[in-house]
Amino acid sequence: MKSPSSLEFLAEALRRLPGVGPKSAQRMAYHLMQHDREGAAMLGRALNQAVEKVQHCALCNTFTEHEVCEVCSNPERDKTLLCVVETPADQLMIEQTMTYKGLYFVLMGHLSPLDGIGPKDIHLEKLIQRASDGVVTEVVLATNFTNEGEATAHYISENLKARGLKVSRLARGVPVGGELEYVDAGTIARAMLDRRAT
Amino acid sequence: MKSPSSLEFLAEALRRLPGVGPKSAQRMAYHLMQHDREGAAMLGRALNQAVEKVQHCALCNTFTEHEVCEVCSNPERDKTLLCVVETPADQLMIEQTMTYKGLYFVLMGHLSPLDGIGPKDIHLEKLIQRASDGVVTEVVLATNFTNEGEATAHYISENLKARGLKVSRLARGVPVGGELEYVDAGTIARAMLDRRAT
Lengths: 198, 198
Ligand SMILES: [Zn+2]
Ligand SMILES: [Zn+2]
Description:
The first copy, chain A, has helices spanning 5-14, 22-35, 37-53, 88-97, 124-131, 147-161, 185-193; strands at 55-56, 63-64, 78-85, 102-106, 138-141, 166-169. By secondary structure, chain A is an alpha/beta fold. Chains A and B meet through helix 1, helix 2, helix 3, strand 2 and helix 4 of A and helix 1, helix 2, helix 3, strand 2 and helix 4 of B.
């Protein structure tokens, strides 16, 4: 006995999704065919549409359906500031803080030599070009405070400073609401070194 | 700032997959657009094809691309035996044991009154019709040995026996290779009650 080939093909294709193994791919395929054919058809349409329409912003590299994204084409934004983030989700988090009115550059990842992710994969040339437009005066590095994010920030910083650009990094320290007892020692050590006059 | 609508639509559609919440849907959408557009296109094709082609076997109710599935149309199978399983995956497990040469009926679920899953959802009428074809002499209930599977087996058994059909159930007992010390008490109790002369 074999599964019908359309179902096998569907289960195989579902495995292209990150975090989906053979068992869950089969479960998903059965679920869609048994309980949610409308959802399956909708997902099929969504995939086709996204593949066709979603591209990268010519300026900031984020996902957009236009040549230049909404943020980059917003005349209200401060064009002298460029904030570098790893992902569109990170950009969204910063937007939600309402503390930043400049523009962005989205790396779509971070350096990870062991995984073969180098400067080209995080679009370093495009970032250097973007930051060298003569209007940007400061680049704010807002990559994650993980090992990879820190290494990425360091690498970008060296490259941009070599071109005479002013580069800053989000401050590290004890999180707002953080109780020292529950904050890790590395964070406290960093907060001590970076302490500010009050 | 907003995500482009094609991406939002894709993330929304991915949530139709079982076990996929908003965070992983977004991660999947980003992953496909950034790293695997070919996979996205392939999944789109697979979904469209499955929605179009996959149907239920007129005889056994499993998924198939034909009116009647491969197993049901195989002349080598013993048409007097009908094994009732919950899912195509369960059927596959039984096929792999090479111990059964009869036909199947796939419920595509189990009774679960609390979830609103009743006799109609497990295609009881279709099963009764199938089992009453005058050729089937024994129905083997191979639903899971969970509460729902047991209740489903009981319900089906009552219905088929009322129509004069012979009904059996897979044996319960200590699993092959099972050490009594590590087998739960309920299983041992059942194995004791069902003990067989040697
Ligand atoms: Zn942009
Ligand atoms: Zn069949």
